[in-house]
Amino acid sequence: MSLALGSRLMAGLQRLGRSLMLPIAVLPVAGLLLRLGQPDLLDIAFIAEAGNAIFANLALIFAIGLAVGFADDSNGAAGLAGVIGYLVLDAVLKTLNPDIDMGVLAGVIIGSVAGLLYNRYKAIALPDYLAFFGGRRFVPIATGLAAVALGIVFGWAWPTIQAGIDGLGHWLIEAGELGKFVYGALNRLLIVTGLHHVLNSFVWFVFGGFEGATGDLNRFFAGDPAAGGFMAGFFPVMMFGLPAAALAMYHAAPRGRRAAVGGLLMSLALTAFLTGVTEPIEFTFMFLAPLLYLFHALMTGLSMALMQWLDVKLGFTFSAGAFDYALSYGLSTRGWLMLPVGLAYAALYYGVFRWAIRRFDLPTPGREPEGETVEAAPRATGERGPAFVAALGGAANLNSVGACTTRLRLVLADAAAIDEAALKGLGARGVLKLGGGGLQVILGPIADGVADEIRAALAAEGASAPADASPAPADASSAEAASAPSEERLARWREALGGVDNLTALEAQASTRLRVELADETRLDVAALEALGCRGIQELGRGVRHLVVGPQAGALAAGLAKA
């Protein structure tokens, strides 16, 4: 059953937000090199140019990063397709209209297209005389052709689109304090859905121009004295306000339980202060006290407006933490004013949070009912992936596993099958159910590593049968029936395989695979198979495919054979 349009749109935006994190992750090293090489620090030209090389090619980097991020298996072929697509699109646009400069948006658009084309055509089968160009090799070709078409479309339409983007950007920039307030408040409010990355990409990389650099972040490091206004206001909140809120939660906990939660809250506060990663703190009160979170969002907007009014300009390449503050201070305008503003924010946040927690008896860390307290049990890294798989409803419940900076971004077969208590015991600070099977688990900076461990656990489970699997009972049919998939699910499998008449042979192999022979390979629906839990497809030629489906292989083969 297809998702509703709204759910599909949300899922697409979620994936875009997650994928943007891959290219953005390279910016800290670029900013570090660019800053250290400047005359007022090390004064080494080649170090500065090394950092500038990354900023000068951001559109290409975004094309690669978005393509890999959108690809279901993050395969390098998608990244190559992103490069091909961007180079073709750029060449077509320069030929049609040399004045067009799509900037980073060109990389975002063509990278997304390349990733989506990879998912659609990575397993395409061509006639024997063209077989060399089938599968993943077909994706760069398709992306190049798509880039030609997009170049023609944008060559005609982009001047109008650019005028609209420029108009919005100029309004935000020229609206002064009001524009900064709107941006700051929206940035925090959108964290609930994870779409703040999409908003940030326009503000930091698109709006405004200075000597070829676009976006507030790029212009700041290019030396634009007017840039930095869309970043400065985050520093008082992230370095002072939210750490003070964590301190208020600590002091609000009963004395006998402070030791149990002190390490957690202080680590969250230190992470926010040093790096500007604040979501783990925010999710400790976002749903417990929505009005308190609204206060936080409005105070972020107010901080942006206040720093604009004080003419403070600061920048960052990762987030508004102490590390970025120290590195960008030499390029700042009146950057010292952030410190007194930050101290005032610390006092305000501490007072408001301490009062609200006591006044409304909020169950912040340490104040939960005794029986509901779940402490994160330390686990060896190798044990964490399987533990998360189990807490998320098992391998068969996981259709897609991804992550951004601070959260797992998942698509589940059944979101109701998760064990939220177990997830909190594994360190989750919050769980968001987004509809259409979408789920986000807020973990902090370890999210990407946990996602890799989950994928490794899934691969290990699908590679072979469990070592301690017991022998099949004498009545194998009854065992199969006990684990047999529903008729509705079998019907979806048959449809994804191209229909009953498309299956010329079918059998389970190696406990975790289906071997299928197809009459017409083009009728195979790869996307539908992946949605059903197929973890990989191996092409063996002449219509033969191996589908990696995990321990359900035997039950699936038996059910499909009955048709």
UniProtKB/TrEMBL annotation:
Cell compartment(s), UniProt: Cell membrane
Pfam family, one: PTS_EIIC
Presence of keyword Repeat: no
UniProt keyword terms in alphabetical order: Cell membrane, Kinase, Membrane, Phosphotransferase system, Sugar transport, Transferase, Transmembrane, Transmembrane helix, Transport
Source taxon at top rank: Bacteria
Region (Disordered) residue spans: 465-485
Any one GO molecular-function label of the UniProt entry: protein-N(pi)-phosphohistidine--N-acetyl-D-glucosamine phosphotransferase activity
SUPFAM superfamilies found in the cross-reference section: Glucose permease domain IIB
InterPro entries registered for this protein in UniProt: Glu_permease_IIB (IPR036878), PTrfase_EIIB_Cys (IPR018113), PTS_EIIC (IPR003352), PTS_EIIC_1 (IPR013013), PTS_Glucose_EIICBA (IPR050429), PTS_IIB_1 (IPR001996), PTS_IIBC_nag (IPR010974)
Residue ranges that the Swiss-Prot or TrEMBL entry lists as coiled coil: none
Transmembrane portions of the chain: 20-37, 44-70, 100-118, 138-158, 189-207, 227-247, 259-277, 283-302, 337-357
KW Translocase (keyword) present: no
Domain PTS EIIB type-1: 382-464, 487-563
Domain PTS EIIC type-1: start-end pairs: 7-369
Enzyme Commission identifier(s): 2.7.1.193
Broad enzyme group: transferase
PANTHER family xrefs: CYTOCHROME C-TYPE SYNTHESIS PROTEIN AND PTS TRANSMEMBRANE COMPONENT, PTS SYSTEM N-ACETYLGLUCOSAMINE-SPECIFIC EIICBA COMPONENT
Protein's name according to its UniProt entry: N-acetylglucosamine-specific PTS transporter subunit IIBC
The organism's taxonomic lineage, starting at the top: Bacteria, Pseudomonadati, Pseudomonadota, Gammaproteobacteria, Oceanospirillales
Gene name of the encoded protein: nagE
